[in-house]
Specification:
The protein is of the alpha/beta class. It is 54% helix and 12% strand. The protein binds guanosine-5'-triphosphate and magnesium ion.
């Protein structure tokens, strides 16, 4: 065998193993994506034609609202229906509650003997390719591995996290009673992306009040393509409201199942992802490979001291890589 053929064959084997759902092959591929290893791109390319059938559910909300607990329950409900489940927990080590790591550990133990469920935690820092793209790629791997439902848990605080749930087919925003000004704390960005509102910890006082507030807010926001986000109360710790939530998700899925709607959403999603991917690759190529951190710092110094203006520096950089329009 020619040595140049060896890696290709290996990758083909690897891809086959992922597609048959082998946990170690899946984990290995996810690590390759996370670490930006060179073979990751080839794996993703080969897996891509086998994606597109999984349903991505984004679960977001402030720290400690019960996202992990609820994801755990939803996963169990889907398993009962015989569906294969993937879970991506982004930033499972929230510094705010401290409960999450323990919670995730318990969850992993509970499902550890079930081959139909794959759970992966990802820390938020240190991804070469950016968090949103990395988790999108991880979701593609899980889809190719035959997961029917993929749950992505993320703390809805930063732009990155909002980007992540934007990838989802359906996004749940968790709120809990008695958190400050309740609905006032709901960021406009989250409002825009929420397909279903979940009032978790509905066992706590003031759950009904929160529900009223959300409904009042929704009556101003109106419907999107004929869909008004339902408000579903749950008690994740007691497994209450989980069936109802699964039914709401199913309702949402059915609502957007028409080919025209689905195609429009898919096209919009890929338009955004293509732009992000292009931006990222261009920045990587131009700044890291052509300019370098040292030169970048020197430019920044010059601008900060007002010795140069940033506009002509960008022109200069583009000229160097042959992309300038001004010649
Ligand atoms: N009373 C009550 N407590 C709950 C409920 N759901 C979760 N909790 C508790 O809330 C705490 C946080 O739950 P998690 O599931 O870790 O919340 P999270 O949103 O994943 O937290 P982070 O990932 O740290 O942002 C834990 O102590 C849970 O037991 C609920 O419905 N009612
Ligand atoms: Mg959590």
């Amino acid at each position: 065998m020619d040595s140049s053929e060896a890696p290709t064959l290996q990758i083909q084997d690897w891809v086959e193993q992922i597609r048959s759902g082998e946990m170690r092959a899946i984990s290995h591929a996810i690590s390759a994506v996370e670490n930006g290893e060179p073979e990751a791109l080839e794996i993703l390319r080969q897996l891509f034609p086998h994606t597109g059938k999984g349903y991505l559910i984004g679960v977001t909300g402030s720290p400690g609202t019960g996202k992990s607990s609820l994801v755990d329950r939803l996963a169990a409900a889907y398993r009962k229906q015989g569906r294969r489940v993937g879970i991506i927990a982004v930033d499972a080590s929230s510094p705010f509650t401290g409960g999450a790591i323990l919670g995730d550990r318990i969850r992993m133990q509970r499902h550890s003997t079930d081959a139909g469920i794959y759970i992966r935690s990802m820390a938020t820092r240190g991804y070469l390719g950016g968090l949103a793209r990395t988790s999108a790629d991880v979701a593609l791997i899980l889809e190719a591995a035959g997961k029917d439902v993929i749950l992505i848990e993320t703390v809805g605080v930063g732009q990155d996290e909002v980007e992540i749930v934007r990838l989802a087919d359906c996004t749940l925003v968790l709120m809990v009673p008695g958190m400050g000004d309740d609905v006032q704390t709901l960021k406009a960005g989250l409002m825009e992306i929420s397909d279903i509102f979940v009032i978790n910890k509905a066992d706590l006082p003031n759950a009904a009040r929160l529900e009223q507030q959300i409904r009042a807010m929704l009556s101003f926001a109106g419907t999107r393509e004929g869909w008004t986000p339902p408000v579903v109360p749950t008690v994740a710790t007691e497994n209450k409201g989980v069936e109802e939530l699964a039914a709401s998700i199913e309702g949402y899925r059915a609502h957007f199942a028409s080919p025209a709607r689905r195609d429009r959403r898919q096209r919009e999603r890929w338009r955004q992802r293509l732009m992000e991917m292009a931006r990222e690759r261009l920045v990587e190529r131009v700044l890291e490979e052509q300019i370098g951190e040292k030169r970048l710092l020197a430019y920044a110094d010059a601008v900060a001291r007002r010795e140069r203006d940033p506009y002509s520096i960008i022109e200069e950089i583009l000229r160097q890589v042959g992309l300038s329009q001004q010649r």
